[in-house]
Amino acid sequence: MHVPDGFIDAPTSAVTGVVAAGALAVSLRGARRELDERTAPLAGLVAAFIFAVQMLNFPVAAGTSGHLLGGALAAILVGPYTAVLCVSVVLLMQGVLFADGGLTALGVNITDMAIVTTVVSYAVFRGLLAVLPRKRRSVTVASFIAALVSVPAAAVAFTLIYAVGGTTDVSLGKVATAMIGVHVLIGIGEAVITALTVGAVIAVRPDLVHGARGLRQRLRLRVNGALVDAPAPTAPVAARTSRRTLWVTGLVTSLVLAGFVSFYASADPDGLEKVAHDKGIDKKTEEHASADSPLADYGVKDVSDARLSGGLAGVIGVGVTVVAGSAVFWALRRRRDADVSPANTGV
Fold it and tell me: For residue 155, is it within any domain?
């Protein structure tokens, strides 16, 4: 659902840019509360994983494909504020290095793909957890539904933005129907990927999943007439997987997905591209400012072998994203540590 330059007029793009900047400022402050020494490295990995999986377009209808948006996955794993930053880092890397998503439309893409998906999915996720049994399985179920809802919500958001600042005169009713219809199907794929990933992390390190925190209440025992907390049960072997092992496993998985599996992804246009072509939204599409990038269109310039070119581009993208994301979240964690240091707390 990467919006290219030319779909949305300059004033509307500027407004969404202001909205995106404000949301990022809020998210930077909020992420400092969500991140700690355990979760900050995971956040950089989540950004890289989202980049990798977004390269895996899957078929959803005749001549149409879809890919992960990632807002729900990131929000559940590392928290909503950090999630906005994760997806925004991915969008920035894609726009600057790979000419995917317009640079003048960056505010539109962050608003739609980072903010809307995160806010909607996390609200649905928390609402479901409030009524579902307090079990790990409930987190997976809520993840599936939240991710499913987030994708058509993003399609609605794009339609509203286009209604305000679209550059072509098309029937908004037809655009809305087409966008929502195809993105409901894409949402199913998003839900499956999100639920499987969240379930896999919960299985080995539930303590690192933001959405699973506080899921179980501590057992209390009455001793000599007083209630005391019972000792925490010993974690199973699987749950004692080290953070380093989890991080390395996630990074290797991301590299394999982007460097190898992506070659077998669907070549059909994604939902927005298909609707834009069918309804005439793309009549005023502009050439991307990074069209001459050596990594444009997810291939390495001057590498003639398509498999090798795409694989190298994917590996480079994962590497750049994990470095950029980790740098951002490491800096935020350091800022949090400075804020709670004895010198700043009066101790």
Answer: yes
Q: d(Cα 328, Cα 46) in Å, to the nearest integer?
A: 13
Look up tokens 């709670």; give the residue.
340
Element (H, E) at 76: helix 71-78
The residues, ordered by sequence, that sit 6+ positions from 243 with a Cβ below 8 Å of its Cβ are 38, 41, 42, 205, 208
Kindly state whether residue 247 falls inside one of the protein's structural domains.
Answer: no
CA 78 to chain CA centroid, nearest Å = 10
Instruction: Please state whether 106 falls in left (phi above 0), alpha (psi between -120 and 50) or beta.
Output: alpha
Domain with residue 306: its CATH number is 1.10.1760.20
pTM recorded for the entire structure: 0.90
Give how many domains the chain has, as a whole number.
1
**Averaged pLDDT, 146-168:** 96
3-state secondary structure at position 64: strand
Q: 176: domain range?
A: 10-210+293-345
Q: Is residue 2 part of a domain?
A: no
CA atoms of 254 and 256, how far apart (whole Å): 5
Q: Is 237 a residue whose pLDDT tops 60?
A: no
Average pLDDT over residues 254-259: 98
Higher pLDDT, 305 or 215: 305
